[in-house]
Amino acid sequence: MEAFTTHTGRAVPLRRSNADTDQIIPAHWLKKVTRDGFEDGLFEAWRKDPEFILNRPERQGATVLVAGPDFGTGSSREHAVWALQNYGFKTVISSRFADIFRGNSLKNGLLTVVLPQEDVDRIWELTEADPATEVTVDLVAREVRAGAFTAAFELDENARWRLLNGLDDISLTLQNEADISTYEASRPAHKPSTIQV
Amino acid sequence: MGRTLAEKVWDDHVVRRAEGEPDLLFIDLHLLHEVTSPQAFDGLRKNGRRVRRLDLTIATEDHNTPTLDIDKPIADPVSRVQLETLRANCAEFGVRLHSLGDVEQGVVHVVGPQLGLTQPGTTVVCGDSHTSTHGAFGALAFGIGTSQVEHVLATQTLPMAPPKTMAITVDGELPDGVTAKDLILAIIAKIGTGGGQGYVLEYRGPAVEKLSMEARMTICNMSIEAGARAGMIAPDETTFEYLRGRDHAPKGEEWDAAVEYWKTLRTDDDAVFDAEVVIDAASLAPFVTWGTNPGQGAPLSASVPDPASYDDASERLAAEKALEYMGLTAGQRLRDIKVDTVFVGSCTNGRIEDLRSAASIMDGRKVADGVRMLVVPGSVRVALQAVAEGLDKVFTASGAEWRHAGCSMCLGMNPDQLAPGERSASTSNRNFEGRQGKGGRTHLVSPQVAAATAVLGHLACPADLSDDAARTPAGV
Ligand code: SF4
């Protein structure tokens, strides 16, 4: 996983709540068996509208998505994260993310930043007033900055440490092999087994 | 202090706990399907890893499988590649797989419980958000992303922070004609699509205790639609009876030991939930959605709400966009909404009881002109049971289509889809824009409402049918 320390880029203000993962990447895209090539599927239905914010010339090359509440609800598809990353987004800001989406993002190095809705509103206003406004998401300082505006955000220390260092979860877990084996040895015999009967 | 059901199951699965780190949780059962696993197997391969516990892993094909002509090669080449990839991965890594055509094939969340693999007090994961279904057994069951699928395949564990707990207490008794589906739609409308976020929901109270296992699964299934990763119901005699004798249920002395353990899986009287919601079952009625998220629902007797009536700006905007997408106007009576398609199936309502209740309404009646009705059993076992009971005949005699098992029209990934602008009454769980096909419009309903809607051609419940004298039920 790529490490995330700090990122600066232009933003896409997405004034929609409940952008579910079916909107982020529609089901028919899920048939791919790779982790890349999802950029054209990102918000596919909404992008049919030439006025949709992502289609506007001034938003091309933007890397920070600033979304309405309840971003990433619905299906657990990690493809939603890959689609955002394949398109070029490095970070998503919202007042509320769906749990599974948030977990998936952090595992792929896409930083999800939770800010109060007033702060999201401010960033919307700033980046709508001037699309060239650069937004900085600084994980070291746990701060979002845009022009004169600054907001602090929280992220649990462990997730932050893993992101800052780009650490892979599986290797970390495998360091605890002894604990896993000990646990396995103590499981009761009545627990289910999928071995065909 | 006492512990909640969720906390008990959680504590029993902690492999390692360290200050400042998420808990490392052991996973008892890992379910796989074709959509969210290919990149996970790829990751294992790249790192030279194997599947740690083949005996706790099982795969089935469901999302891409067609429900017609299943003996022919799959027409869509991309779907075919995905199924072939799963087959190749399972063969390479040694994972048990139930492919299309196999008697145990079906929607992953129907198959697990049916085999007796889903048991009280277990941790169950799958790369699918509706894994919450399995919580009906008092299991801690949640959907995971593909990176986590790979993590579980490699380690049989997941690092996770303990969730908060929310009690959803349903007092009283559900009125006649009101089902588990109506109850969960009403709960989601009440707490909102983000209301359960960060929580494990525990459904409890007299109305929940009375429900069958299948009805409990319908409720837990849609926990995710309230933003909760998991929903649970404490196991009781109903649970034990359902499990007894199933293929993978414990046998003999192990059964006794298991039941003894399962009986301890109740929230202690002095346990404290982080949040609590109380619902009066008696106040509920058949419930349908009018919008594009599962929280946008109302009793069938109501009208389409006026977006202007919402105080919250983002909810108002969401309602405006939903009405525009759904082609509805504020104030329109929900009962006046005409549909083109009725879908009975999915992991929410594709089990035998669901088919029975839809069939009992269709029996001796006809699907309205201009309406197509698809009935899709959740698994091959459910299909066989339905055929044994003659339900397939009831459906076909009424003009409905009886299909092979799979996810079908629950999501637009296989040939069963809505055309742009088409409107459905669907027993599935998501009414998102385009969920059932590009431009399709979905109203979420119970199997009973689906059947009555098929007969009348507009959103309706069985009570609306009471005076059709021409009916000649064959009696199923
Ligand atoms: S039936 Fe629908 S919700 Fe259930 S697993 Fe299949 S696609 Fe997902």
Automatic annotation (TrEMBL), chain A:
Residues 1-118 form the Aconitase A/isopropylmalate dehydratase small subunit swivel domain. Belongs to the LeuD family. LeuD type 1 subfamily. CDD domains: IPMI_Swivel. Its EC number is 4.2.1.33. Keywords: Amino-acid biosynthesis, Branched-chain amino acid biosynthesis, Leucine biosynthesis, Lyase. Coiled coil: none annotated. It catalyses: (2R,3S)-3-isopropylmalate = (2S)-2-isopropylmalate. It is an enzyme of class 4 (lyase). This is 3-isopropylmalate dehydratase small subunit. SUPFAM superfamilies: LeuD/IlvD-like (SSF52016). InterPro entries: 3-IsopropMal_deHydase_ssu, Aconitase/3IPM_dehydase_swvl, AconitaseA/IPMdHydase_ssu_swvl, IPMI_Swivel, LeuD. GO terms for cellular component: 3-isopropylmalate dehydratase complex. Transmembrane segments: none annotated. GO terms for biological process: L-leucine biosynthetic process. Pathway: Amino-acid biosynthesis; L-leucine biosynthesis; L-leucine from 3-methyl-2-oxobutanoate: step 2/4. PANTHER family: 3-ISOPROPYLMALATE DEHYDRATASE SMALL SUBUNIT, 3-ISOPROPYLMALATE DEHYDRATASE SMALL SUBUNIT 2-RELATED-RELATED. It comes from Streptomyces inusitatus. Heterodimer of LeuC and LeuD. GO terms for molecular function: 3-isopropylmalate dehydratase activity. Catalyzes the isomerization between 2-isopropylmalate and 3-isopropylmalate, via the formation of 2-isopropylmaleate.
From TrEMBL, chain B:
Its cofactor is [4Fe-4S] cluster. InterPro entries: 3-IsopropMal_deHydase_lsu, Acnase/IPM_dHydase_lsu_aba_1/3, Acoase/IPM_deHydtase_lsu_aba, Aconitase_4Fe-4S_BS, Aconitase_4Fe-4S_dom, IPM_dehydratase_rel_enz, IPMI_cat. Binds 1 [4Fe-4S] cluster per subunit. Its EC number is 4.2.1.33. The keyword 4Fe-4S applies. It catalyses: (2R,3S)-3-isopropylmalate = (2S)-2-isopropylmalate. GO terms for biological process: L-leucine biosynthetic process. Residues 7-457 form the Aconitase/3-isopropylmalate dehydratase large subunit alpha/beta/alpha domain. It is an enzyme of class 4 (lyase). Catalyzes the isomerization between 2-isopropylmalate and 3-isopropylmalate, via the formation of 2-isopropylmaleate. Belongs to the aconitase/IPM isomerase family. LeuC type 1 subfamily. Heterodimer of LeuC and LeuD. This is 3-isopropylmalate dehydratase large subunit.
